[in-house]
Amino acid sequence: MKTVDKALSVLDQFSMENTEIGLSELSRMAGLDKAATRRLLVAMAKHGFIEQAAETRKYRLGHGFLRLARIREATVPIARAAQEVADWLVEMTNETAHISIPGSLGMTTIAHRLPNRGHVVNIVPSQTLYFHATASGLAFLAFAREETVNTVLSLSREKMTEATVTSKTELRKLIATFKAQGYSHTRNTFENDVSSIAMPFFQDSTDPAGSISLALPKNDLTDARRNELLPLLKDAVSRLETALTGL
Q: Is the domain defined by 77-245 classed in CATH 3.30.450.40?
């Protein structure tokens, strides 16, 4: 593993649930020895990407990421546009909406909103939405290049629930079906008692830039309800693509 790969492996351990991590735990989580982990942390701290809390001596992400995030947002203001679209979609559907972009293992939520009512699906923004187990990930794969699909299907696949599909053959069948119908739909594949539908959106590459999804309590996604939601989901895709590309 190269030095950059090791550094990114260390950074990947931080999340909304783990904002500060001690050296021993961080080295264990990243699969590296303590000496190597400490060298990486010291190097990243020099450039502001890692900080050490004075009281706990634990490590956390540094201010260096804020500068890069501002540059990224100024270049491609996707997060702001995505949140506006998510807000609109919730107003129109009264269902949980979330918008995600692809990462190395799955989709990452960049915008979400919950409807103002009881009995809804909650979203954990820091949670990786695995390609094979979520409507978001499967919508992305359904419209991705064959090269991208092959890369994703070469990854190990965890069975999140009893309904999670892990077979490469079965996943290819799902991908083909979802591409033909223009959207993906899942039930109980990532979390029990949750159904989702999703569509990809594009920006300026041959792979989708991400997915827009609606998540509902399992039994709420009837055929009739899906037919009501699909036109609104398609409209949300159009709104986001227009915001990102002007087209």
A: yes
